[in-house]
Design goal:
This protein is α+β, with helices and mostly antiparallel strands. Helices cover 29% and strands 21% of the residues. The structure holds flavin-adenine dinucleotide (FAD).
Length: 526
């Protein structure tokens, strides 16, 4: 009886406090052990992201020390009279403010290192349990101590586990292992109701599938159990060039069709990029070609305006016979139709290969070219229309300036679990096309933010007008109608999951999918 009275008292107190005004310091009264701050530096940090296209100031920032801090905050937001938004922020590497909120609390998931949330490797069961705010580079470092590594990657490792699992997490291994979301055994998730639930294919499966690729809409990932494999020691990294788009895509599609073959009869990583005329083959993603000896497209005598670079790797383990590796690579290359004189190849440690973009980041940072606006556009393009996309976009809309790398590589849809919240084109094979632009203010009109943003709009309109059924990856829309179109048949499932796991629309409001069911500024409406 005494306990019931105490609970009732606590509940009434909660309603009375949070039902008036949002004073973030009130949150301390609810026993949040992590550090809640309204300090100007923290607020400023949480109000921007890598894209530098939009900015929203939260009312407070929470540095959680455990999942239970997050649960307390979310329960409070869910049960309070008027509600407030809560957004998890991983490493803030979104483009369009996806981890920002102007009317609530940002939970800074990275950087909260304590004894309870360090990676725990099970070397016999081949998995690692990691905190949702762990960076992939740190996941790698901890698993390498056991000679193990995750199977599926992103090109860049300074992204948080929760951040990439909320999207998909893709790189050149996806054709083989699927995206990162296909390599998760289990998660702990705090839902928008403040419940902490363990979920997997067998336990709370709907939550498990909802959260993977769920854009932060259904819960905050506090722990993920990630599948591991024995870590390769070295990588043979190969790049070859094509002037003929259909030869290029034919070879890429052939190589990904080998996904079910034994490891010795396929490559481990398959990507590619587009190089338009006037561009040097060296850019921040392709420093692989010697920076002292930049290669001009015209010097290859390829003719056309656009070249395509196939990028592939062969992993090998300690003690592997170099002759065997040569033979395996040779046998695979023999089947391809690239420009014969165009091969670049190098061997390097596996870790250096995985961390390659960080090397480029450091160079760009030193030149002040990292902290610039990034109007990126990432599209999944169905295989049947990739040639039309090439004609209309690479050889059309883009002209001969790109202001950043353009990645293009195919993936096998059967490596993606359709029960997740991600949407991909309805074909067995689809391409990622990633236009990774940096806007500069150096007097060149084609590099301005306005020019690049207009170009993105033109590309999307071109796809619409040509009935190329692309799906945005790392999607960004501003109206619910656009989100409904994006999700298509999946929209009813997404809405149902939202109602179940975050009925007050508290979570990840920066994605702008669901209108919060509370006032836009809790300082005035509470
Ligand atoms: P944030 O930007 O902090 O958050 C993104 C979204 O996830 C937000 O809605 C946020 O609320 C939500 N979120 C964050 N943490 C959690 C959590 N623990 N639980 C639930 N929701 C959460 N992507 C690829 O797939 N492949 C690549 O190769 C790749 N390369 C990239 C390279 C660079 C340089 C950059 C800037 C981005 C790249 N990305 C790539 C995109 C990247 O995966 C996404 O932007 C991802 O969201 C970034 O992770 P983050 O930790 O910075 O997330």
């Amino acid at each position: 009886m005494a306990t019931k009275l105490l609970l009732l008292f606590a509940f009434c107190r909660l309603i009375s406090i949070v039902g008036l005004t949002l004073n973030p310091t009130d949150l301390f009264r609810f026993g949040l052990n992590g550090q809640l701050t309204t300090g100007a530096d923290n607020i400023k940090f949480a109000s921007v992201d890598f894209g530098k296209l939009t900015s929203s100031e939260p009312l407070a920032v929470l540095h959680p020390s455990s999942a239970s801090d997050i649960a307390k905050l979310l329960r409070l937001a869910h049960e309070s009279a008027s509600g407030f938004a809560v957004s998890a922020r991983g490493h803030g590497h979104s483009i369009n403010g996806q981890s920002q909120t102007s009317n609530g609390v940002v939970i800074q998931m990275t950087g909260s290192r304590n004894l309870n949330n360090r990676p725990v490797v099970s070397d016999n069961l081949m998995y690692v349990d990691v905190w949702g705010g762990e960076l992939w580079i740190d996941v790698l470092k901890s698993t390498l101590k056991y000679g193990l590594a995750p199977k599926s990657w992103t090109d860049y490792l300074y992204l948080s586990v929760g951040g990439t699992l909320s999207n998909a997490g893709i790189s050149g291994q996806a054709f083989n292992h699927g995206p990162q979301i296909s390599n998760v055994h289990e998660m702990d998730v705090v839902t928008g109701r403040g419940d902490v639930l363990t979920c997997s294919m067998d336990q709370n499966p709907d939550l498990f599938h909802a959260v993977l690729g769920g854009l932060g809409q259904f819960g905050i990932i506090t722990r993920a159990r990630i599948a591991l494999e024995p870590s390769p020691k070295m990588v043979r990294w190969i790049r070859v060039l094509y002037s003929n788009f259909s030869a290029f895509t034919h070879d890429q599609e052939y190589l990904i069709s080998l996904h079910d073959q034994p490891q010795s009869q396929k490559f481990d990583y398959i990507e590619g990029f587009v190089i338009v005329d006037e561009g040097l083959i060296n850019n921040w993603r392709s420093s692989f070609f010697s920076p002292n000896n930049p290669v001009k497209i015209t010097s290859l005598g390829a003719g056309g305006n656009v070249l395509y670079c196939l990028e592939i790797t062969k992993n090998y383990h300690e003690g592997a016979d170099p002759e065997v590796i040569d033979q395996e690579v040779e046998a695979l290359l023999e089947k391809l139709n690239y420009i014969p004189a165009s091969m670049f190849t190098t061997d390097l440690p596996y870790v250096d290969f995985l961390d390659r973009v960080h090397t480029a980041e450091l160079k760009l940072r030193s030149k002040g070219l990292w902290e610039v606006p990034h109007p990126w556009l990432n599209l999944f393009v169905p295989k049947s229309r990739i040639a039309d996309f090439d004609k209309g976009v690479f050889k059309g809309i883009l002209g001969n300036k790109t202001s950043g790398p353009i990645l293009i590589y195919p993936m096998n849809k059967n490596k993606w679990d359709d029960r997740s919240s991600v949407v991909t084109p309805n074909e067995d094979v689809f391409y990622l096309v990633a236009l990774l632009r940096s806007a500069l203010d150096n007097g060149e009109e084609t590099l301005t933010l306005k020019h690049l943003s207009d170009e993105n709009r033109k590309i999307i309109n071109f796809c619409k007008e040509s009935n190329i059924e692309v799906k945005q990856y790392l999607p960004h829309y501003t109206t619910q109608k656009e989100w409904m179109d994006h999700y298509g048949d999946k929209w009813s499932q997404i809405s149902r999951r939202k109602l179940e796991f975050d009925p007050r629309h508290i979570l990840a409001t920066g994605q702008r999918i669901f209108e919060p069911s509370f006032g836009s500024d809790p300082r005035s409406s509470w």
